[in-house]
Design goal:
This protein has 394 residues and is mainly alpha-helical. The chain has two domains: 1-195, MFS general substrate transporter like domains (Growth Hormone, Chain: A, Up-down Bundle); 200-388, MFS general substrate transporter like domains (Growth Hormone, Chain: A), CATH 1.20.1250. It has helices at residues 9-39, 48-71, 73-96, 100-117, 120-127, 132-141, 143-157, 168-179, 181-186, 203-206, 210-240, 245-260, 266-273, 275-294, 299-326, 330-361, 364-370, 372-385.
Length: 394
């Protein structure tokens, strides 16, 4: 395949590290809410361990960037891997001791490591030259596809690995999986991060731009809807519908495939049809996901709904992120994307936190109906903002 030709050793290392990190994340998406349902002292705290990971990602991104500029990427990447490893082992220990607080603390530590890993794609881009930068980023993001196969397999095949300690085994295995990244990252040889002077327009100017706002709303609320529904899915599949852990793993597995597989062609679609049409297509996928989920219960209902949810997330997040990036000049892009990510993950963390409480108090069907509110807001933003990229149709 052309995508794999001319890929440097550094890019291969970043792609492998991304796959290992995403494997850990997928195990967490599959099982952490279920662990929360066993250990949380109150129903509204069930999804706190998942929510705290999103908060940690948000907290880690800016400090990680500054630390990389001072100490170099390899050292900070290694520290991130150690955080994830310790966090995964800590999650297992919290299950063995049947203690909720250590689960939350360990999940926060794991999230910090995930925040560091957000820079893998930028490191790959810096390791490539000219036109190869886009290929390098795409190659790293393809690690998400590999993890979509590996993560859920670990999640259900090791769920009862340790006798009398449901789920502990899978987190021990994820800790061991993450340790594989240590020698991979150790061999990195990439240029140092270049410090840039703050230039360009004030951040407040961007929030006065309809196109930028529509892109931000599409990305943030699109991510919000996906997280709100996905976080509750294991609770619905296993605790309510009483399906197997394998069924839960398969639903999450194909959901993650649907999230990342469109990245192989979403850029081409945006270039051909315009970002506006792709954002509307993502919104249509969300409507389809909600309608399928409202049509009944059962494995294939959940599977179909989560597949459409994954595709919709990709179109809205990739499309919205493209609009955000296109709104800024090169010297402004770092600041603007940093603020945008902060806004996005703030909304995502809130959605994840509310997901467990909503599922416990209101139920699956009501959650699907609630999702139509942000879907409507995104539609309004697209109509008013008319997002588009430079030299492209709306």
């Amino acid at each position: 395949m052309k995508m794999f030709t001319g890929v440097s050793g550094n890019v291969w290392r970043m792609g492998a590290s991304q796959a290992l990190m995403m494997t850990v994340m997928n195990v967490n998406l599959t099982n952490t809410a279920l662990v929360g349902s066993l250990l949380a002292p109150s129903p509204w705290l069930i999804t706190l361990p998942v929510s705290i990971q999103f908060i940690a990602v948000m907290v880690a991104t800016i400090p990680a960037s500054l630390l990389m500029a001072h100490f170099g990427r390899r050292l900070i990447f290694l520290i991130g891997v150690l955080m994830v490893t310790i966090g995964a082992f800590g999650q297992a220990l919290s299950i063995l001791t049947e203690s909720f607080a250590p689960l939350v603390i360990s999940s926060f530590l794991l999230g910090l490591g995930q925040g560091v890993a957000q820079f893998y794609r930028y490191a790959a881009a810096d390791a490539a030259q000219g036109a190869e930068k886009a290929k390098a980023v795409s190659f790293v993001l393809l690690g998400g596809l590999a993890s979509a196969i590996i993560g859920p397999e670990i999640a259900y095949r090791t769920v009862d690995l340790l006798p009398n300690s449901l789920y502990a085994g899978c987190f021990i295995v994820t800790g061991l999986v993450q340790m594989i990244a240590i020698p991979i990252i150790w061999g990195l040889d990439i240029p140092p991060v270049k410090r840039q002077k703050q230039q360009g327009r004030p951040i407040t100017k961007f929030f006065q731009m309809p196109s930028f706002l529509s892109g931000l709303i599409a990305a943030a609320l699109g991510y919000c809807i996906m997280t709100f529904l996905m976080t509750a899915t294991p609770l619905q599949v296993v605790d309510v519908s009483r399906l197997s852990h394998e069924a839960n793993a398969r639903v999450i597995q194909w959901h993650v495939v649907a999230m990342f597989a469109p990245s192989l062609f979403s850029g081409v679609l945006i270039a051909k049809f315009g970002v506006g049409k792709i954002l509307w297509a993502g919104l249509a996928c969300y409507v389809a996901a909600s309608m399928i989920a409202l049509s009944g219960t059962g494995f294939y209902i959940y599977l179909g709904a989560l597949i459409f949810l994954g595709i919709g997330w990709n179109f809205l997040y990739v499309g919205g992120s493209s609009v955000i990036a296109n709104s800024a000049s090169p010297e402004e892009r770092g600041r603007v994307q940093g603020i945008a990510d902060f806004c996005i993950f703030s909304v995502v963390a809130t959605a994840s936190m509310l997901s467990g409480m909503a599922h416990s108090e209101l139920g699956w069907a009501v959650m699907m109906m609630i999702a139509f509110a942000p879907i409507f807001l995104i539609a309004v933003a697209l109509i008013i903002g008319k997002p588009k990229l430079t030299n492209q149709p709306a």
